[in-house]
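> @MW can you paste both from yesterday?
MW: sure, first one:
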Amino acid sequence: MVSKLIYPAITFEDVWFSYSDLEPVLKGVNLCINDGEVVAILGENGAGKTTFIKHLNGLLKPTQGNVYIYGENTRSISVAKLSRKVGVVFQNPDHQLFAETVEDEVSFALRNFNYPEHIISLRVEKILKMLDLWEYRKTSPFSLSGGERKRVAIASVLSYDPPIVVMDEPTVGQDYAQKQKLSEIIRLLQIQGKTIIVVTHDIEFVCENFPKTIILSRGNIIAYDFTRNILTNFELLLKANLLPPQIPYLASRFNSIVSKNVLYVWEMRNELLRVMRK
């Protein structure tokens, strides 16, 4: 607990990484994410996003430079120890699931961390009901749909309550209702003071849920700022091969009649009312 008060949650210091002798995937990444921040990571395919998050729980170690989690260098900590602090939900849930039932899958980490059985039962029930998975508790996760398997992977991480939660493309395969449920969970985790990092291509989801955004392009962080500043900067988005959200794009079509800094529907409505009253 002391280290959380002294150090940022995540620090990258001049981190380079390459697979074998190939061109570096991460190129001199410097970054500091404070405890309790909620951050989205955007970037085109091949930008290095998944490689980046694999450094957070020690699955990958920098070729050069250092990564610190609450001040501890990931080079000197085992993946098992890091997993208590950093829970990662990978893009493909099939790379993460292995148990015979959903219930066993979600309870595995809790048992591995020696939680009492009554606590395990309470936590598993709570998280499965939260993610609309309770009816599948005795079902094999591999018989579920892709979106349901993704939610099982999320549940298996949230169940043991790590201070840092990382999700890679959590909205893939989720319908509108499940995206809303995921938004509620992110807000709940934020209230609890969790540090949340989410990699996504869903730029509208980023608008609705993330105060800050990182843009990763070709292994470099080219922007880390408040989400509004990033998603209304079309020149920056173009540089990273990203399309702007719908509302800022619509605002840009009004030839400066409305503010170019508009991000939300209600802001657009207010701008249009302001123009009409002139």
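MW: second:
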Amino acid sequence: MDTTTSIKTLLQKHPIVGIDTVAFIYHLEENHKYLPFTNVLFEMVENGAIKGITSTITIMEILVKPEKEENDRAIQEYKFILQTFPNLKIKPIDFHTAEKAAELRAKYRIKPADALQLGAALVENANAFVTNDEKLKQVEEIKTIIMKHALGI
């Protein structure tokens, strides 16, 4: 089975997928090591094969580099993509999401941003969470998909 097929097969098992910021960064910055994964992921979200969920934390994290570089074109492009991408929900950090994040942070001692991303995914009934942070594999409440493992890196 080729890489694209194996990634599709992996993702198809999860109708709603939480997506960590790193997947967006790899894709938008065309990281060639991870494009085989992110191309499949975002194509599946775009065509509705799966639904994507991320939190407003992604907006903050994704805009840091273009803001530092004063790259207005990238800032506008990234904001437009996030706001208009089909089948992608950007979950605000509301009371329920923050409460879920606090539970995860207390139980697993994960970073606040990670807890909020996972909390948003869980509140929105995601079945899996795509990241490259191996520490998040310990979270039992959701299936964690590590991109580099899926690619055999």
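> thanks! The chain is about 55% helix and 15% strand.
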